[in-house]
Design goal:
The protein is mostly beta strands and about 300 residues long. It has 2 domains: about 1-40; about 50-310, OMPT-like (Lipocalin, Beta Barrel). Helices cover about 15% and strands about 65% of the residues. The chain has helices at about 10-40, 200-205; strands at about 55-70, 85, 95-105, 110-135, 140-170, 175-195, 210-230, 235-250, 250-265, 275-290, 295-310.
Length: about 300
């Protein structure tokens, strides 16, 4: 006889339920083990490498040394002299601003990243500016006269830099990426003399505000490199450059070039968090022409940054 059942009231049903429950539990454990094994096999090997983080985020402080020059046209569309916003107009040449970064490694060789920072500056001070005035005596010609006036100035920039990179080399120690990016530069800058102006020539040239507000989309070619000293310490560098002359429509034109580069050291202090410190360089030359408005700007920011990063 293969099996013997002994009936004692309802006990057989209870015994059968326990046996069935154990079988189901064993089956569930077996299925879970197989599933976990399959998932473990699906996780690519590079995810365990020091450079294999799927996501990296950073937030910190950037303290650059600033050099800013700009010129804006008058009401007649004539481009004025280039003026230093730090030396001539009194804007601070060393400020601190928040900076943020996020990177996503989509796959072993495909990577997306975005950088962001915003910097607002304004000042009012007595500034000496060279003004061209007409000599009334014949024959008429132009003279240059230095005028000292209280001048208010503002220069605001908001930068979003998005990059896609492909890694032809990606190993446990090295990652070399070639990418293309788009730097969106939103600028607002201008200057204006005091309303208390009693000299017609000066009033004509500086009494009315000269300002420009533009968004410049500047594509960049990128070279990225990472080196893993060990599981905890990484070195990261990137360089980007592009020059552009873009006609948005028949009455609006944007041209310029952009350089940006950075070098940093990242320390994975804990499983998911760490610290990053480095040096960032950012230089943009921009020309903007829209109807009667003409503007040119050059801003050079370079300095150290540091902050916290998350990685997983």
């Amino acid at each position: 006889m293969d099996r013997l059942f002994v009936y004692q009231g309802g006990n057989i049903a209870g015994i059968g339920s326990v046996e069935m429950g154990l079988k189901r539990l064993a089956m569930a454990i077996l299925v879970a083990s197989i599933s976990m094994s399959a998932v473990a096999k699906e996780k690519p090997e590079w995810r365990s490498w020091p450079l294999g983080d799927r996501m990296v985020g950073f937030i910190g402080v950037y303290s650059p040394k600033l050099q800013t020059e700009a010129a804006v046209s008058d009401s007649n569309g004539n481009l004025g002299a280039r003026i230093s916003f730090e030396d001539t107009l009194g804007l601070s040449d060393n400020v601190s601003t928040p900076i943020a970064f996020i990177g996503w490694r989509i796959s072993k060789r495909n990577y997306l990243q975005m950088n962001y920072f915003k910097l607002d500056r304004s000042a009012t001070q007595d500034s000496t500016i060279d003004v061209a005035v007409t000599n009334p005596s014949p024959p008429p010609d132009f003279l240059t006269e230095s005028i000292t006036l209280p001048i208010s100035a503002v220069f605001n920039i908001q930068s979003i830099d998005i990059t896609y990179a492909f890694s032809p080399i990606f190993t446990k120690k090295h990652n070399l990426g070639l990418g293309i990016g788009l730097a969106l530069q939103e600028l607002e800058f201008g200057y204006q003399a005091s309303e208390n102006c009693d000299r017609p020539v000066v009033c004509d040239k500086f009494g009315a505000p000269r300002k420009a507000d533009a968004v410049a989309p500047l594509p960049t070619f990128k070279l990225l490199y990472q080196y893993a000293i060990n599981d905890k310490w990484l070195i990261e560098t990137n360089v980007g450059y592009f020059a552009l002359d873009l006609e948005l429509d028949s009455k609006e034109n944007i041209g310029g070039q952009i350089w940006n580069a950075s070098a940093a050291v990242r320390w994975k202090a804990w499983d998911y968090f760490g610290f990053t410190a480095g040096y960032k360089f950012f230089d943009v030359d921009l020309d903007y022409d829209k109807r009667s408005l003409k503007a040119t700007a050059n801003y050079d920011y370079r300095g150290f940054f540091a902050g916290l990063n998350a990685h997983f």
